[in-house]
Write a structure and sequence with these properties.
single chain; elongated; three-stranded antiparallel β-sheet; alpha+beta
Length: 171
């Protein structure tokens, strides 16, 4: 049984093909599309092939011509859906926010605790300040050995290597 396919094919903002194809399979519609636009593949193109069964179309047209159904009877009013609840992100590395206190749970004698102050995060290795890295670099410049430097300061060789690369110690 033949089916009617509606085909739309676009490349970026340009419509390359828009039309219909009547055939047995979706694969046949794909071949037709490739021939119509003159390409072997559809790579890089956005396309859709929508199947509309021919008997269904005939049935709808016959019913409309007979006057049984007017198009306005089947129209369903579109309603706006309820707004979705606000999505909040829980970040493992962010400072914990204080929960909002509702009036029913509030106690008059207790004052809300202030949020803990976040310390300024260093760009480098957490837990080591600039003074520490100045000493590490000075030692590295003397011995020029990543492994010895890492061992002396209790660091991983990869940590020292990464810091040296980031700050351009070899230059």
């Amino acid at each position: 049984m033949n089916k009617l396919y509606y085909i739309v094919c676009e490349e970026k903002e340009t419509t390359l093909f828009e039309g219909r194809y009547q055939g047995r399979t979706r694969g046949g519609a794909l071949k037709f599309l490739k021939q119509s636009i003159g390409r072997k593949t559809l790579n890089g193109l956005v396309f859709t092939i929508t199947e509309i069964p021919v008997p269904l179309i005939r049935e709808i047209v016959a019913e409309m011509l007979a006057g049984g159904v007017t198009p306005a009877e089947n129209v369903v009013a579109i309603t706006h859906p309820d707004p979705e609840p606000k999505v909040t992100r829980f970040d493992a590395f962010a400072a914990a926010a204080e929960p909002e206190v509702t009036p029913a749970k509030a106690t008059p004698n207790k004052k809300p605790k202030p949020a803990p102050k976040a310390t300024a995060a260093k760009v480098g290795n957490p837990g080591h300040g600039d003074d520490h890295w100045t000493k590490v670099r000075a030692y590295w410049e003397k011995c020029r050995s990543i492994n010895k430097t890492a061992e002396k300061f209790g660091l991983s060789p990869n940590t020292v290597k990464t810091r040296a690369r980031r700050e351009g110690w070899n230059k």
